[in-house]
Each structure stands twice: as structure tokens, then as C-alpha cells.
């Protein structure tokens, strides 16, 4: 009886460890996408809408952050956490891991859109063009691989 209880306890600990590991992976993926969302929408998007004033340094920093973070997508999304972040608004579709090659193919066009505008944005009109170009490439992936949870 003690052996059965010990074995069952071991399986429960293993299961809990796997769930915690999956949640850690899901949170890492979510944090990466949130960082990109901050640069894209909380900074660039708000400037484009006129919600915050145009500021060149903030634009340059946001573009640099996007460039750095987009390069991490394929690696960060290699493990499949098989669960969503608790209380998240958006999550990752299992389609990512069912068709990882297609998912990964969406990254270079985003990188190209960023590279095409980097260092060339000098005013709000240029920022509007850059925002649309980058956002359109982001949407190519989001339409297939992002889930609205709430």
C-alpha cells in the first residue's frame, strides 16, 4: 500500500512539474509577444493615432526592440507548452506546432518590413507608412496562429 501511495505521489509530482514547465514556456512566449505589442501598439500605434506626440527616440527604440524580439520568435516558439497562459486575452494556436515550417516562414517578411523602415522614419507620415507595413506582416501570422481567448 505504501508503495502504491509513493508511486502515485511521484506521478502527481511529475505531472505538476510538467504543468509548471508548460506554464513557464507559455508565459515566456506571451511575454515575447507582449514586448512586441508594446513597441508596436503602445508606442508606434499610439503615435500614429495621435494619442501621444511623435518622438524620434521612442520610434527608433521601438523599431530596434521589434527587430530584436522578432528574431526570437522561432526559437521561443519551438517548445509547445500545450496550454495557455492563465487569464490571458490572446493565446497560441496549436496550429503553430502542427505546421511549424509555415509559422516560421511568416517571420522573415516581418523582419524585412522592419529592416525596410529602420533608420528611414523621420516624421509622423513616415511612421504611418512603417506602421502599416509592419502591422500587415504581423497580421499574416496572427490571423492563423493567434487565438482570442476572451
TrEMBL record:
PROSITE patterns cross-referenced by the UniProt entry: CYTCII
InterPro entries: Cyt_c/b562 (IPR010980), Cyt_c_II (IPR002321), Cyt_c_prime (IPR012127)
Entry coiled-coil feature ranges: none
Residues annotated as transmembrane: none
Matches recorded under Pfam families: Cytochrom_C_2
Keywords, comma-separated and alphabetical: Electron transport, Heme, Iron, Metal-binding, Signal, Transport
Signal sequence region: 1-21
Protein name in the entry: Cytochrome c
Organism: Bradyrhizobium jicamae
Amino acid at each position: 500500500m505504501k508503495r502504491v501511495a509513493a508511486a502515485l505521489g511521484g506521478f502527481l509530482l511529475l505531472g505538476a512539474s510538467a504543468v509548471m514547465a508548460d506554464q513557464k514556456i507559455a508565459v515566456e512566449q506571451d511575454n515575447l509577444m507582449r514586448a512586441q505589442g508594446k513597441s508596436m501598439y503602445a508606442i508606434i500605434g499610439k503615435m500614429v493615432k495621435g494619442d501621444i506626440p511623435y518622438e524620434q527616440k521612442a520610434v527608433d527604440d521601438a523599431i530596434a526592440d521589434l527587430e530584436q524580439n522578432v528574431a526570437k520568435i522561432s526559437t521561443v516558439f519551438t517548445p509547445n507548452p500545450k496550454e495557455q497562459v492563465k487569464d490571458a486575452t490572446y493565446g497560441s494556436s496549436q496550429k503553430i506546432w502542427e505546421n511549424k515550417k509555415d509559422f516560421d516562414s511568416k517571420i522573415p517578411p516581418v523582419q524585412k518590413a522592419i529592416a525596410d523602415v529602420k533608420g528611414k522614419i523621420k516624421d509622423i507620415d513616415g511612421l504611418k507608412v512603417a506602421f502599416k507595413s509592419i502591422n500587415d506582416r504581423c497580421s499574416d501570422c496572427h490571423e492563423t496562429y493567434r487565438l482570442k481567448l476572451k
